Amino acid sequence: MAISLAIDKQVENEVSAAVLAPVALGRILVALDQSDYANNAVVQALRLAKGHITGIHAYAARLHDRRFKQMEGGLPERYQRESEMEHQRDVHEDLIGMGLGLISDSYHDAAEMRAKKAGVAFKRLSPEGKNYTCLLDAMNTGAHDVLFMGALGLGAVAGSSIGTVCERVVRRAGIDVFVAKNRRVAIGDGPIVVGMDGSPKSFGALMTALDIGKRLGAQIHIVAAYDPFYHYVAFNKISTVLDEEAGKVFRFKEQEQLHEELIDDGIAKIYQAHLNVAETVARDMGVDVKCALLAGKPYQAIRKYVTQQDASLLMLGKTGVHADDGLDIGGNTENLLRMVSCHVWISQAEHIPPSDLVAEETIMWSDEASEMINRAPEFVRGIARTGVIRAAQKEGHTFITTRFVSDIMAKMMPGGGDDKAAAQSFEPLGWADDARVLLDEVSDQQMRENIGLRAEKSARRDASEIVAIAHLEPFLAEAALKPATRGEIIWRTAPLARLQRVPEAFRAQVRTAIEDFARDRGLKIVDSRIEDDAFAASRMAMCPVDPGQA
Fold it and tell me: Which three-class secondary structure string do you get for 318-339?
């Protein structure tokens, strides 16, 4: 029987050419601009440096000179005399030629002073040109291991999350980038959280995190997030546009059941397997880690975890397990870079765990088994293949057959083939009245439908016959929606649901009374802490008692 090796030579070559983790940290490049964010980036670089750091500050002298020439015709009348104009040109030339250089030197002086105190050698780069272009040129020389930079520069304003220079550099960077997102927090003040999806870059981020954690004594958390709700939403949306004949051709219910089972159990097990491998890697390096499997939109689930754990640093692969050759940055990484308040480390370095590498090199597949796994839906094919390989390695197999694939897939997708269960699984669910009213508070129709379908999926996972508030609430929070807002007062889900139970004729009056109660106490949120007192106060406001009659 012909056999095929389960190793992709193209991927093997790409990985061998990649930067291996952990990142060396012997040659750190630091972007300087004297902002609080950049200054903290310098401090963190000095704490981690194993060799020297190089400060870089670019100044665009030619750009300023060109802009001044463009403005000459619009200067006030007193500057329009020829002698005065020539004088201003000389003054501006001195300012651009010397002034910007002096400013750049002062930035370097301040960073070098910090480096001397830390006992770290310091080098200077002061190129002329656009700042992000100069940063990329320096990174592309191969003379640096990682770039440290601030999320925002001197132009930061209220509400900013990522500056344009940071965004442009991160998107185009070919080496690891540390982004300082908090002006005061140091790496290790809270746990270091690593996002794990099984890709070489996510394992690269882990290896660098373990190295940093050991040096700083920081706790390492490893999280893997998968979304069991997306495909339920997608299939329900598809069902609204398929006619009966198209549905038969597409075998809609069969496909839906396959995805339901694979997403609910199979992918969860695969991501748990990634965590297990990561935990083994950490244990082999002598590091105790905490692992967590998260369900939900990955970037939202990870953001929530990072916030709850008060993390100091989030480490992510620049691209994930589903990346193609043309992708510059993964969607989850990009969203988290913008959304989290802790520092972010974006890894380009790669690592393949020894167990996976051994399995890929030693385990062979029959042609029939390879054909069988390739019939899996494209978006889960790699995940399913990894699951089978890891199961074979665990059980000691070195040759994979169709029977073995079938057995593993059956374990990943329990209940497959039970048509009765499948039919019952997709019967429409009812909604609790208070949950329906709460959902209707979402004004955006598309968002409302999406949240509603996710809540239904959550109810099905709980084997519930109705969608209750408990199924709805997490998705309102994840979407960063305020369930209701009147002026400055924000209502949390539980008190808002309680308000909906007030007879409609009195609801507006009760709401006004409760919001007045909150304002009188200098509060902007109606939540569980003031709920009972607020509702009691509203009853008093509607039915005041004469003190003489009390």
Answer: CCCCCCCCCCCCCHHHHHHHHH
Distance CA 196, CA 224 (A): 5
482-550, which class in CATH? mainly alpha
pLDDT (mean) for 327-350: 94
**Residue 188 has which token pair?**
């290790």
| Whole-number Å distance between alpha carbons of 442 and 484 | 8
Reported as type and span, the H/E element at residue 172 is helix 164-172
Q: Model confidence over 100-121: pLDDT tens digits? A: 667 788 899 999 999 999 999 9
- For 15-55+134-227+296-347, CATH gives 3.40.50.12370
d(CA 25, CA 20): 12
CB 177 within 8 A of CB 315: no
* Triad 225, 195, 146: Cα angle to 5°: 160
Identical fold for domains 428-479 and 482-550, yes or no, is yes
Q: If you compute the radius of gyration of the chain from its CA atoms, what whole number of angstroms results? A: 29
**Which tokens belong to 151?**
């999320």
Domain ranges of the chain: 15-55+134-227+296-347, 428-479, 482-550
271: CB partners within 8 A, 6+ apart: 196, 197, 198, 224, 225, 226, 293
Which architecture characterizes domain 428-479 according to CATH? Orthogonal Bundle (1.10)
Nearest partner of 222 among 211, 208, 206, judged by Cα = 206
| 364/407 Cα distance (integer angstroms) | 17
Per-residue pLDDT at 172 exceeds 70: yes
Nearest partner of 54 among 129, 119, 111, 101, judged by Cα? 111
C-alpha–C-alpha distance, residues 228 and 458, integer Å: 9
